[in-house]
Amino acid sequence: MGARGSTGSAAPDIRTASVRVPAQARAADVERERGVASDESRSASGARGEHTHSEPPIPHLRVETARPVETARPVETARPVVQRASVRGQILDALRTALVAGELAPGQVYSAPVLGERFGVSATPVREAMQQLALEGAVEVVPNRGFRVVRRGTRELAELAEIRALLEVPVVLRLARTVPAARWAELRPLAEAAARAASAGCRATYAECDRAFHHAILALAGNGQLVQIADDLHRRAQWPLVGGPVPRGRADLMANAAEHLALLDALTAQDLPAVQSLVREHFADC
Fold first, then answer.
1. How many angstroms separate the Cα of 14 from the Cα of each of 62, 118, 122?
2. Tell me: the pLDDT tens digits for 155-200?
3. Rounded distance, CA 119 to CA 129, Å?
4. What is the residue-wise DSSP string for the chain?
5. Residues 6 or more apart in contact with residue 251 via CB below 8 angstroms
6. How many Cβ atoms sit within 10 Å of the Cβ of residue 184?
7. Beta bridge partner(s), residue 63
8. Model confidence pLDDT, tens digit, residues 32-86
9. Cα-Cα-Cα-Cα dihedral of 214, 220, 225, 226, to 10°?
């Protein structure tokens, strides 16, 4: 759940990321980008992703392009309907995965057009996804250049772990007294999925499974605001560090995943002392 030191396996190659997006008219996208560039450069955020020669190269991203649905109409009139919000959401998910995997390096600036080329889409959905990451605090806008991945240290990680513990530990202890065993059994597939991701040594997949497990536990409290805040803190705790511990490897991920299963066993048995010990230890490892 946190960033324990390890010499574990390397981050997964971002080239294996598969983002399914509808086919796009590339030439039209280019013209549209040219048409709106001057307006965007004057926007309040200054969040215009321009190419910069100092931008570090990253591996090309493999993107699956959906085939247009066959139609009896003439080819020249058959236009695929592009769901822009859907494309932006898929790009956002892919960027979050790249961030957790360490493919987007802290302190480096990335431009929307260059990232768009690697995704096989126009710069617009990439820029919109990056603006969302800026709102979340993962990147910061660099006017007329692009977006810089924030630099974070171990102190910030420790502060996030402390806040998460203050929020989640009391809730889990309260749920341990009230939630029946059958409900805890429903969460076991999530813990087992995290264990499989840990066994494979995939940090990005494990991070997603880890968040899903904690999200499901807190959702039992019926407090949507709590779940949203805790999920945001959890996601921020998974971002890469500068000068921090070596990213967790397979052994550390497996130990963390084992804590999920042990916690479920204690919750099912309503063993309150064991629950308290396990949940506090789990956050201490963050």
1. 8, 11, 19
2. 888 899 999 999 999 999 999 999 999 999 999 999 999 999 999 9
3. 12
4. --------PPPPPGGG--EEEE---HHHHHHHHHHHHHHHHTSSS-------TTSPP-PPPPEEEEPPPP-SS-GGG--PPP-HHHHHHHHHHHHHHHHHHT-S-TT-EE-HHHHHHHHTS-HHHHHHHHHHHHHHTSEEEETTTEEEEPP--HHHHHHHHHHHHHHHHHHHHHHHHHS-HHHHHTTHHHHHHHHHHHHHT-HHHHHHHHHHHHHHHHHTTT-HHHHHHHHHHHHHHTS--SS-PPPP-HHHHHHHHHHHHHHHHHHHTT-HHHHHHHHHHHHHT-
5. 6, 8
6. 22
7. 19
8. 444 444 444 444 444 444 544 455 555 444 444 343 434 444 434 343 333 555 8
9. -50
Rounded CA gap, 224 and 266, in Å? 25
Residue 7's Cβ-count burial label (10 Å; 0-12, 13-18, 19+) is exposed
Beta bridge partners of 20: 64
Q: Which CA distances in Å does 29 have to 50, 92, 113?
A: 15, 19, 11
- Centroid of chain to Cα 77: 38
**Angle made by CA atoms 270, 272, 277, in degrees to the nearest 5:** 130
The closest alpha carbon to 26, from 89, 111, 117, 112, belongs to 117
CB burial string 217-235: b at 16+ within 10 A, e below? bbebbeeeeebeebbebbb
DSSP of 128-143 = HHHHHHHHHTSEEEET
Phi, psi at 12, each rounded to 5°: -65, 145
In the β-sheet with 109-110, what is the strand arrangement from edge to edge? 109-110, 146-149, 139-142
Yes or no: say if 150 and 241 are a contact pair by the CB < 8 Å rule. no
